[in-house]
Amino acid sequence: xxxxxxxxxxxxxxxxxxxxxxxxxxxxxxxxxxxxxxxxxxxxxxxxxxxxxxxxxxxxxxxxxxxxxxxxxxxxxxxxxxxxxxxxxxxxxxxxxxxxxxxxxxxxxxxxxxxxxxxxxxxxxxxxxxxxxxxxxxxxxxxxxxxxxxxxxxxxxxxxxxxxxxxxxxxxxxxxxxxxxxxxxxxxxxxxxxxxxxxxxxxxxxxxxxxxxxxxxxxxxxxxxxxxxxxxxxxxxxxxxxxxxxxxxxxxxxxxxxxxxxxxxxxxxxxxxxxxxxxxxxxxxxxxxxxxxxxxx
Length: 297
Ligand SMILES: [Zn+2]
Description:
Pfam family, one: Zn_peptidase
Largest sheet: 5 strands, mixed
Protein name: Neutral zinc metallopeptidase
Number of strands: 7
Subcellular location: Membrane
Strand order of the largest sheet: 1-3-7-6-2
Order of helices and strands: EHEHHHEEEEEHHHHHH
Bound molecules: zinc ion
Strand content: 5-15%
Transmembrane segments: 28-47
Keywords: Membrane, Transmembrane, Transmembrane helix
């Protein structure tokens, strides 16, 4: 068990689609150049306008079509579904994030919170930042303030050595929520995957999102309104295992390449672990100040 018994997702801001697998023209995200391969395992942020340049594809074609029905969220309205079905868990995680961030953001950064949307899709999806496929991995689009998740990504995570444990799956959603927080902070635009490297803004933004996921986790099981049962050490270790699995050095090793910090966009396994834990152990945004802004209370 992870969510307390009785928890049902509200469905607020959550939508699903089956995507639309087009014949012929393939999704645009996996493009040529060095960037494409890095996008495979993301948890990243898409800044609109860059998509076309990554793959050279067009993003307009599907815009007016109705997306096929996706997962039916009504399936989440039975006891235990939030702990058994990945889509339901993600939808409930969104509720938990939306419950916690308003006060944290106001108290620690002096900012108002507005909730993002969560779109769960399969296959391909049209977004405010262009056309994307599941190969992209989970991502956040600031233009439509939406977190996009294809839950089959969790299987991919496992193959990479990550965990498909409950907190691990939630960490993925919470990381993308972190990008939404950065959007509200006005810092998200600093992310630039075309200028990677260990000390790049892209890495700083990604590590901060990991840390913000930790801030959420540190609070999600506390207080009378907590939706989660107390998080166990084992669950934390599973989230850490996943954070390590998607470290840039690990991904480079797995793909048979040399470890090259100059190509990093998300940070090393060690950095990602430390960032998540920095947020988790402190519960404080200021522990996540990878951009050295010094603005947090
Ligand atoms: Zn990210």
